Amino acid sequence: MVGGQGVFLKKNSDQLNVFYQDLGALSSPFYSLDIDLFSWLENNPVIDDEDSPSNELDLIDVVKVYIVRIPNDVNKFIMEIRKYFNLKLSINDIREKLNGLPFLVIQDITLMKYGKTIEILNQKYNCLEVLNSKNEILIRPVKN
Predict the structure, then answer these.
(1) Is the Cβ–Cβ distance between 24 and 45 less than 8 Å?
(2) Which CATH number fits domain 62-139: 2.60.120.460, 3.30.1390.10, 3.20.20.70, 3.90.550.10?
(3) Pairing state between β 103-110 and 128-131
(4) Cα–chain-centroid distance for residue 70?
(5) Within a 10 A sphere around the Cβ of 130, how many other Cβ atoms?
(6) Alpha carbons 33 and 37: distance in angstroms, whole number
(7) What pLDDT was estimated at residue 49?
(8) Do 26 and 8 meet the contact criterion of CB atoms below 8 Å apart?
């Protein structure tokens, strides 16, 4: 592939879905081609420019982090977000705010500082969404 991008496969039941990403940004979200590997191979397996994301993640842009779904282990999740984001909200306040999703957890932070933390929390709890200063979604939970 041109430009240092890689193609990745994810096995979902009987399908192998095709994703791609810049090889220097493997901790960032992967971009789906929304196609099965074998269908992609049968139909001219290239990644067109329109398939590529228009904006790469800007690590110094300020972002907002929302909780957009209830995490599995709510108590553990609340303790971790309070610790990682140094939140002053009480456990009860956070629990109440989870009843009215989406809930803005923190804003005006950068992915350079908190990107790895957000990635770890989303791998564990799959409930965070990150929007940049233009309100574009940069990171979202994996669809179940």
Answers:
(1) no
(2) 3.30.1390.10
(3) unpaired
(4) 16
(5) 22
(6) 10
(7) 53
(8) no
Q: CATH 3.30.1390.10 region(s) of the chain?
A: 62-139
Say what the pLDDT of residue 121 is. Answer: 92
Tell me phi and psi for residue 57, to 5 degrees: -60, 130
* Spans of the chain, pLDDT less than 70: 1-5, 20-34, 47-60, 144
CB 64, CB 107: distance < 8 Å: yes
Token pair in block for residue 89: 């909200």
The answer to whether 57 touches 94, Cβ cutoff 8 Å, is no
Specify the amino acid at residue 37: L
d(CA 2, CA 49): 11
Structure tokens at 134: 């233009």
Is residue 106 within 8 A of residue 85, CB to CB? The reply is: yes
Question: DSSP assignment, residue 46?
Answer: -
Give me the sign of the Cα torsion angle 122, 71, 85, 63: positive
